[in-house]
Design a protein that fits this description.
Helix content: over 70%
Strand content: under 5%
Shape: elongated
Largest sheet: none
Number of strands: 0
C-alpha cells in the first residue's frame, strides 16, 4: 500500500506541474484559443488548488488507514492493550500536521503564485519570440 501511495503522490505532483504548463503554452501559442488569459489563469489556479486538495485527501486517508491497523476492536478509540510505540507514532502523524489542516489556504496561495509566474513567463516568451514582419519589395 505504501508503494501505491508514493506513486499516486508523484503522479499528483507531476499533474499539478505539467497540466498548467501545457494549458498555458497551448493558450499562448494557439491561434484558435477562445479563452482570455484571465480565464486561463482562473482555470489553472483552480486546477492546481484542486490537485493539491486531492493530494491532501489521499494523504489523510493513507495515514488514517495506517492508524486504523492498531484499532483491533474497531471502536475508533485505543484501549491500553492497543497502545504501542508504533501506534503512538501513527497517531502523531495523523494529528500533528498543520500543513494538511491549512492546505486549502496555502494551496490557494501556491496556486495563485504558480499560475501568475507561468502566465508571465509565457507572455514574455511570446513577446520575445514574435518575428518581425519582413518587408518585401
Amino acid at each position: 500500500m505504501g508503494k501505491i501511495f508514493e506513486i499516486s503522490q508523484l503522479l499528483t505532483i507531476f499533474a499539478m506541474i505539467v497540466l498548467p504548463i501545457v494549458m498555458v503554452y497551448k493558450h499562448q501559442f494557439s491561434h484558435k484559443s477562445r479563452l482570455a488569459s484571465w480565464q486561463i489563469f482562473l482555470i489553472g489556479t483552480f486546477l492546481v488548488w484542486l490537485l493539491i486538495q486531492i493530494g491532501v485527501y489521499f494523504t489523510d486517508a493513507y495515514l488514517q488507514a495506517q492508524l486504523d491497523v492498531f484499532d483491533l476492536d474497531g471502536n475508533g478509540s485505543f484501549s491500553s492493550d492497543e497502545r504501542s510505540e508504533a501506534q503512538q507514532q501513527a497517531m502523531m502523524r495523523v494529528t500533528s500536521d498543520t500543513g494538511r489542516a491549512l492546505a486549502p489556504v496555502t494551496g490557494a496561495i501556491f496556486a495563485f503564485g504558480y499560475m501568475s509566474i507561468l502566465i508571465m513567463f509565457f507572455k514574455l516568451l511570446g513577446i520575445f519570440t514574435k518575428k518581425e514582419p519582413s518587408i518585401e519589395a
